[in-house]
Amino acid sequence: MNIIYLHGFLSNSNSVKGILLKRYIEQYTEHQIYLPDLNMPPLQVLEELSLQIQQLEQVVLVGSSLGGFYATQLASRYHLPAVMINPAIQPWILFRKLFGQDKIPLKVTEQWTLDDTQLNDLEQLAAPFVQDASKVLVLLQQDDEILDYREAQRYYSAVTHQSMLITETKGNHGMDNFAEKIPMIIQFLSDSIK
């Protein structure tokens, strides 16, 4: 199994959850893991990830926050199993609310500045519902300080496209107890790829 971990906004390929997942996979499994840096415009992110997916076999995705949004689009496009961790559902709205018009364009890294065109691109990319919803596990925490967990609950529990949802009280956006969930995540992905 080839696992691609998609980090969130204002993070990078050395994110805490990505490194925890990598250590677990290397220590306890025969799987391969990839931690791409997603700090680039959304269309470029999806283009590069699509190329990577097409070059690998038995691909599964794990995405956190904005990475969860990307994972949803790619899982739908390529019919892949995926696990979403406190995923962003409408990041274009979230970023406009968080940063306002006075801070956009927002310099994210030396190479990438998020602008209104890219926010519009995110909106255009959004799938109306998740394809192959039975291959998707969504992990939510109610005390997420960035995202309203109910948006993800509504999106991933559409009547004809229901994913498996685990919603915990308390918690936070970073999902501090993520390490405890890794064995379950790997088992879900392994079962879904068969």
Automatic annotation (TrEMBL):
Protein name per the record: Esterase
Entries under InterPro entries matching the protein: AB_hydrolase_fold, UPF0227/Esterase_YqiA
Transmembrane segments: none
Signal peptide range: none
